[in-house]
Amino acid sequence: MKKKLKLLTIFMILFAVMFCCALAAFIVTRMTLNDEVAINREAMGEMEANKKTVYVVSTQDGSGIGHGEIIEEGVNVVKQTVYTGLEEYNYITEEDLGSTAIVDIYEGMTVMDNMVTPVSIESDTREYEMQVVNLMTDQQENDVVDIRIMFPDGSDFLVLPKKQIKNLNLPNCVFWTYLNEEEILRMASATIDAYTITGTKIYATRYVESNLQEEAVPTYMVNAAVADQMDPTCSYYDKNLLTKAETTLNTIARSNLEESLAVLSDERLAAVAEGHNLEDTANTSVLTGVNAYDYEKSLEDGTASDRTFSGTEDDLYGTGEESDSEDTEDGEEQDGLTDMEEDTDQTALSSDGENVSSAAEKTDADDKSKTGK
C-alpha cells in the first residue's frame, strides 16, 4: 500500500512538473507570438507608410533615358508602386513631366527629382533653327554647347551660352534650340557679321559636364542696327524684349572691333577664309560701319555706283537735323527755280512787247510812204 502511495506521489509530482513546464511553454510561446504579431503589424504599417507610386523608366528598346531627353509618360516613364523610405519630394511628380534629364537614367530606375531640370519657357521663347553654325565632327543629339563667333583678326566672342542641340542633322550642320527675343537678335547680328566679313566663323563648343558647369556670360557685341532695336529710346526698339545682356551693347568696343577689322588686308582675309574652308560671301572685304559706302558723297564727286550700302542707320538715313537742313536746301532750290521761271516769263513778255512795237512802227512807216506817193 505504501508502495502504491509512493508511486502515486511520484506520478503526481511529475505531472505537476510537466504541467508547469507546459504552462510555462505556453505562456512563453504566447508572449513570443504576441511579439511577432506586433512586429509584423509594425512592419506592415511601415511598409504601407513607405508604399509610394512613382515614375519608373520604361522604354520600348530597354535603353533607358539619355541626358537631355524629355521625360514623357507612356514614352519613357510609367507609374509603378514601390516601397521606399525616401520622402515623396525626392521623386518627380506629374508636374515634372516635360522636364529634361540631366543624367543618364537606366531602365527600371525610379526617376529622382535631382535627375531632371525643368524647361524654362517664357512668353518670348521660340524654337530657332540654326543653319550657320559649324558643328563638331562627333556632335550628338542633346549636347549642350556655346555658340561662338571668331573674326579674321583672331578675336573670339561668346554669342549664345549653354544651348541644347535638338533635331540634329549633322551632315548639313542644322539643328534647332530654344532662344528668346534678345538671343534671336544677337544671333541675327552674328549671322550678318559672318556673311559680310570675310574669314568670320560661327562655331559650337561643347560643355564637358553641363549639369555641373555654370552658364557663361555672352561677350559678343551686336552691330549698330541691332543695338538700336535693343535701345528703348530708339524708334526701332523691339517691344518683345524681356531680357537684355548689357555686355552685348558696348558700342565703343564694337566700334574698336570694326576699326581693327577694317585695316586687315585682302590677302589676310582670303587666307583666313581659305584656312577655315569658309564660303566668302563678302568677296574678300569687311563690310561694316567703318567701311560704309557714302552714296551722297559719291553723287557729288560723280563716282556713284550700285554698290550696297553697309553703314549705320544714321549714315544711311541721316539725323533729324540733317533732314531739316536738306528740306531747307530743297526749299531754297525750289524758290530759285521759281524765280528763274518768273524771270524767263518776264523776258519772254518783254520780247513779245518789243516785237509788237517794232511791227507797229513798221506798219506806220509803210502807211506814211504810201501817203507820200
Topology:
Elements lengths: L1 H48 L1 E7 L19 E7 L16 E2 L14 E2 L8 E5 L13 E7 L5 E9 L1 E4 L4 E6 L1 H16 L4 E6 L17 H6 L21 H12 L3 H10 L19 H7 L11 H5 L2 H53 L1
Antiparallel strand pairs: 1-2, 3-4, 5-9, 6-7, 6-10, 8-9
The count of strands amounts to 10
Strand content: 5-15%
Largest sheet: 3 strands, antiparallel
User: What is the H/E string?
Assistant: HEEEEEEEEEHEHHHHHH
* Spatial extent as radius of gyration: 46 Å
- Mean of the pLDDT scores? 77
| Number of discrete helical segments | 8
Uncertain runs: 290-299, 303-329, 347-363, 365-373
Domain module count: 3
Task: Report the structural category.
Answer: alpha+beta
Overall morphology: rod-shaped
End-to-end separation in angstroms reads 221 Å
**Percent range of helical residues:** 40-55%
Strand order of the largest sheet: 5-9-8
Report on this structure.
By secondary structure, the protein is of the alpha+beta class. The protein has 3 domains: 1-47; 51-117, Type Iii Antifreeze Protein Isoform Hplc 12, CATH 3.90.1210; 126-275, no CATH class. The protein contains 8 helices and 10 strands. The chain has helices at 2-49, 181-196, 224-229, 251-262, 266-275, 295-301, 313-317, 320-372, and strands spanning 51-57, 77-83, 100-101, 116-117, 126-130, 144-150, 156-164, 166-169, 174-179, 201-206. The strands form 4 sheets. Strands 5-9-8 form a 3-stranded antiparallel β-sheet.
